[in-house]
């Protein structure tokens, strides 16, 4: 019944059990996230197979430079998130706050760039639905590509917004002195989530921006 | 044993009388209270879904559409399906009995994530409110399957509200599964190894795997339908380059495994009931445990059998046909093992056992007719007929619902601390069994003769069988009302239950009825395998010991 720091919740016998349960739960959560995005990737694969030329033409209208910059920003935010986890392992409250703020800044920058890209698409008549100008394309069904582009990047951006919300909550908890060394898993589990969201982008970037571009 | 001696007297401090007031329920993190909240919410949905079934059967009593119009009829069967599947059958056993029993069976004080557990109830309820909104504001008529492009483009009913309700409830299901998986892995009492677990736990573990792996894909499918409908984006609409059959693939990738979300927990319940009332260890314990996992895994590779006539590749159809038949193997393993458990058992025909025996017969019929439907050529003949309707009602009502009611009776003394009236219990179990068969067996014949599902006008020669079915439905409805009445009655007037009224093995029966808030005074130490009944007397040997450490 060791409970240093009073961090053990009533249903657990000790801290080890609590940490292991939390970790398994977090991984199980990420597995269901994989399936959620997996369904959308499956839809992407089906339509890419069906309309290869349309997808190639559609990806030519995406901004590789902005997408590439965003990729670098996001990988950088994974580094700051990892540093926050590292600080939590040491029990450095200041380090946690610093690196989480850094992650928020980078995540915000990513979302800002994404917003710029979205507004370009709006001006170019690339928003699927009534505003879509299909006359500018040689192939048909480019609209399907853009539908998937917005669904996939939109769901990814939504996950980032949720991640930023969680970080603000974690910063508040840390400043109140709640995140002690015994509760470092709060930061660790958030790190897992943030890295997962990054990895989704690592797949999205080549699938949407790069693949078929020079084909 | 000491618990048994004390519990018959005045009620001691337990999870029900630990605290009163609405807040102590709405903000509780006690898995037992959350299970009860689910029980209440889900019973409401059950009777609402049942009301739609009543309207359907009334309409079908005559061959002409004299009660409702076609549009109304479409809404009736849609809302019956949506409510019964997403708001009753899928959560029923896991969220009520699983929630209540899993920690007790594992010797734990609660689930691994009690607050997450409470959140699932709120998600379930919020999803239900959206669906209820759709119901009262005019309904939805897409069928519970939401097939595109009808759902995404053409239907002018409340598709979005309903889909949103299902979407939100899906998260409840995912998080319940997550909670159960972690709890089973990390919260088992000392000595409770995997192969000492009750089969109820194995079944729920397998169910949870499906909930985590399948439900997110349903979320994807519903999300895409919603986006297409809201923004006119072309994902499934063929006019815009989309493929409506792709929706069917995504939908059934979840919704076929969802059938196993409904039936696997009920198989777990049946293992407990049969072993207890045959006074025998379950025959082939490890085979039943592993067949649950096999069903969960195989279930992910058979979705195409819903799409034999959708225009998917013939070769895909052949493969899906073969794989679907493979699911029959682990299912049959279970049925044979249960039957072998009965052999030379000291069988006691109490209410839960009548439900369990009813389950055996009805599930077998449902399973065998499933093989008909898995056969490519036969399915082309009976596809979208009442044969399919009869088949899945034998699985879901004859199987899942019978087991749910059997389990509810079996654990009622533990949940409420009161006994239900045994005589009425037996009577209503028999009424339900007979009413069920009269309702749904004629539908096999109707389907085989060619009556299509989802139509409310039919040729005159089908009337006799339809009237039989409607008559059966009224008996079935009566059968559901009786337990509803006497279970509520028993809350106040039922005999006080001892801690182990069935002389069953299992950790949950070592606690008082009803259990204390944190379940066990001391963490139990398990020293024997599950279902440890002595061969001569049928008395359970104490399978537990208490550790000498006080829980703080």
CATH architecture of chain A: Up-down Bundle
Count the DSSP helices of chain A: 6
Largest sheet of chain A: none
CATH superfamily of chain A: Cytochrome c oxidase, subunit III, four-helix bundle
Order of helices and strands of chain A: HHHHHH
Helix % of chain A is over 70%
Number of strands of chain B: 2
Helical content band of chain B: 55-70%
CATH class value of chain B: Mainly Alpha
* CATH level-1 class of chain A: Mainly Alpha
CATH topology of chain B: Cytochrome C Oxidase, Chain A
Instruction: Give start-end ranges of low-pLDDT stretches of chain A.
Output: none
Name the overall outline of chain A.
elongated
Q: Return the average pLDDT of chain B rounded to an integer.
A: 92
Please summarize the sheet with the most strands of chain B: 2 strands, antiparallel
Poorly predicted residue ranges of chain B: 1-9, 545-552
Give a short overview:
The complex is a heterodimer of chains A (about 220) and B (about 550). Chain A has about 220 residues and is mostly helical.
